[in-house]
Write a structure and sequence with these properties.
By secondary structure, the chain is an alpha/beta fold. Helix content is about 55%, strand content about 10%. It contains 12 helices and 7 strands.
Length: about 230
Amino acid sequence: MKRIIIVVLILFGLLLIPILTESEIEHKTKRYIRGLFQSDTKEGASALYILERDMHKQYDFSGVRIVMLGDSHTQFADWGRFLSEYEIAGLGIGGDTTDGMLARIDQVVAIKPRICFIMAGINDITRHRDLRDIQRDYSGIVTRLEDAGIRPVIFSTLFVAEHHYDPRRINAQVEELNAYLKGLGCPFIDMTPDFHENGFLRPEYTLDGLHLKANGYAVWRDYIFRYLRQEVDD
């Protein structure tokens, strides 16, 4: 009898729980994510940026020879396991822009790596930052690293897929940014042949039109392996 009463109470309790529709769940999720990325703190930066930046200050990076600097593209991979043959650390922050990376470049310098791989710019472009400002920030990052004796290696900024919002404007500016980055005078790794097709990010490498799936990261890893084996291992 007690079990029957308990089951009835549980079922009654479930009926009292507000039922969220799929659209309501999606709305709440998007609102939560926007809250992480919005620049609404006293510092003028997003909560996620401040958290990740300050956590990076707490980590032990002793022995690290390679740093991955970037935004969510970089943050979403566990580079230490992905490239376990090398002493590598990931300093990616979701939503970060080139000015945000320039502001925290001293963290990279303090680690004293031999190489700093960089992928950046897509968040700047989606937020309509002036291309000249992005170029200036990128140049500042490269100069600061080179002055510290660290080799900057730039990956081409990836296009967005055709189903992403405003893809033609975004990709046109990405193409213009990549042309500029090629001329910065430091190593530039063009991943366009594998990731782009007909002016868009290949759909098989993304779900949301921007971020990479695991198979996309595998392709990116191969580019890194080839560079390191040629430039570091030899």
